[in-house]
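Sample A.
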Amino acid sequence: MKTFDYRGFNAAGQASRGLVEALNPKEAREKLAAGGILAERVTVTGKPLHFRTELRANFYRELGALLTAGIPMVRALEMLIQAVRQGATGSLLAGVRDRVREGQSLAESVAGIGSTVTGFEHAVMLAGERAGTLAPVLGKLADFLEDQEQLREKVRRALIYPSIVVGVGLIVAMVMLGVLVPRAQALLADSGHALPRLTRVMLGVGRGMAHWGGVLVAGVVVAVVGLRRRRLRDDGFRRAWDRKLFRLPVWGRGYAQLCCLRFARTLAILLRGGVSLVEAITLAGSATGSAWVAQLAVEQADAVRHGARLSEAIGRIPPLSSALPEWVQIGEESGDLAGMLEHAGNRTAEHWDRYVSRALALLEPALLLVIGVFVLLVTLSVLLPVLSLTQSISLP
């Protein structure tokens, strides 16, 4: 028995959409017709779709709560499907339910229907199923995903105001360079007076933007697209590029703190879920989002496999060596490694929040200053010819 997603019209001619269980599309259409629905499209659920982070977090949390209440897995999934009957989410969950009924694990079922489900999530769920602690592990996983989404949302919100300031400043500058400065030039040309040097410079900038602005923008777009494609195809280039990001003056420090935060929290969740230390190091490295850290984590996981201490291994990963080795060493000595990693993640999160707040607090006035100076120069390039012409007229 499979679940199909259908679209059609009911007896009243109104659009109808939902899910129906059947052995094949033909039987699904027959069931719908018997219920008074003319199916326009019938497709099997469970195809790889974009499963957004917030939706995955809600799914893990609600499923964990239902499992904690003693509800069987298939029944819990059916209840969640009924709660979100319409839309792509219902189709995704129906695909998970069908795979679980066929005998697959929850980890394999979720990984098969969501193109955005990470290897970290798969490993956490698989470890929870093996250890018999799936319900609490799903809750921890939901907390982690929500924390990551809050971090992204905080950065996006913080960049809204600077983006608006830059956009407005550029628009004002283009209007003044394209309209006001040329009119000032025409005014002085009619009077026979020479243009001030600043006005000539700004006119040159305006002409350059008019002639080469489109080419420059197109070149930047082509370069960005080319870099993104190469990063996706070339692992060596992606690691080299990522390594350079840590060397940037302001970005590098914040990026290192973010990697420490993600690594510590991910490793704590994996260890509490029953994942082996060697496998957990590799998965935690991937969860940082840094290709370079992920490669170093694989190398140090192999060192741990051959007897190295975790604190020493993390100390050999430069972006993590400044914040985590001491906490890991305390956890190894106290026997509560996961607990100390969670504590280290919380402390690193506090440092990262303060660092981002300070950086953004400096970014806004810096952008205002740059835009203000540029607008001032354009304004002076307009006013100086007018003042020069006024003085020449007033002279006897």
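Sample B.
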Amino acid sequence: MSVSTIDRYDIAQSYEWNYQHAPMADGAERAAEVPGEWTFCALRVVSPLGMPAGPLLNSAWIHYYAARGFDVLTYMTVRSRFRASFDPPNLLPVEGAPLMGEGSELEQAATAAAQSWAISFGMPSRDPAEWRVDVERARRGLGARKVLSVSVVASPEVGWTIGDIAEDFAQCAEWAASSGAQVVEANLSCPNVCTKESDLCLSGEASGEIAAAVRARLPREIPLALKVGLFHNEEQADEVLRAVSPHAQAICAVNSITARVAGHFGGLRRGIGGAAITARCLEETWMLLRLICAAGSPLRLVAVGGVMSGQDVRDRLAAGVEHVHLATAPMLDPNAGLRIRREWSRAV
């Protein structure tokens, strides 16, 4: 991979181009301290700021954002086999009313500076022989009290059972752990694929079986997190949380909200990230925390989805989440993490 003179993901280029042209990791200001004691999956870190799977395409992207105020870095979702990205556009600026549920329609925004994006990658992955070496490289380049999480997903074939899918998840998780992952995230939700791995999080039975299989293949000291999407109702969420509670250590929510974009993606839904989903994801955060507390579950909650500002971070921490992850905001402004930490430090 080469180093680019750009300082952010270039949405006019392909996934492959951006994979090969990561920005340089040096040149950032020193990150301001965030008062308090912070953890991610019980691992000590120096701030509550992290980045989810998606923006961090490889080790070079991880090191770039690690230098810009983020202390938990999640390697973009990997598979047990190569998977090409969807054709561009992979990120499309959109506008419209805030999304309060699935199934709305948005318009393409007039400017690339819009605060919401439609996301259309399809969970691409390098071959395991390549990504395992790169995960090792990512871990070696991170400083003390920064955590590398690796997101994994299964690649179902025709006729696969949930047991087959769980085994594929577990194989990827085992490879990630042996390559240096400090946390493994099983991605149970992807709104941009049409195969079985797209909405596993909506089934308590499937989520529980996958979580159990992955947990059995991970070393005891490596936490398991589960990435989930928007649940249809509290009953469904409660069923899933109870099913995975014996096996997982954390839930990462919400993995975008789906909508159609007029004139794009062949009328298929795509995940929407950014300001359009801020309010709805905060509602979901409160709901999940209520259910976790009511069940007496040891699960920790990592907030993601629509976190755009320091106030959004504080709102989620006030709700009771353990850690907060940002994606769209730092892709729009690579120094968003540094800015939030600086504002926080000055306020204190």
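B remarks: The chain has one domain: 2-83+122-252+281-347. DSSP finds ten helices and 17 strands in the chain.
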